[in-house]
Design brief:
Layout: E1 13-18, E2 24-29, E3 33-40, E4 45-52, H1 53-62, H2 64-74
Antiparallel strand pairs: 1-2, 3-4
Helix pairs in contact: 1-2
């Protein structure tokens, strides 16, 4: 299962775990992804997405259809609604 947001493209980033004695070992920071179904009343359809919580907050603010249209205009995603 790929850990990438379907809308924003957020994915894992790398960093260091730092111990008390300041020894650094590599680790991964994973995005906070949630599987969620969204209803789009403009096209009378449900879609299932794996999105980050920040994308969910943006969808709650703007609406799913407006957010998808904005991403399509920027060229970030291809949608066939």
């Amino acid at each position: 299962m790929a850990r990438f947001c379907d809308l924003t493209g957020k994915g894992p980033i790398s960093g260091n775990s730092v111990s008390h004695s300041n020894i650094k070992t590599k680790r991964r920071f994973l995005p906070n992804l949630q599987k969620k179904s969204f209803y789009i009343p403009e096209v009378d359809r449900w879609i299932d997405l794996k999105v980050s919580t920040s994308a969910i907050r943006t969808i709650n603010k703007k609406g799913i259809y407006a957010y998808l249209k904005e991403l399509q205009k920027k060229g970030d995603i291809q949608i066939g609604l």
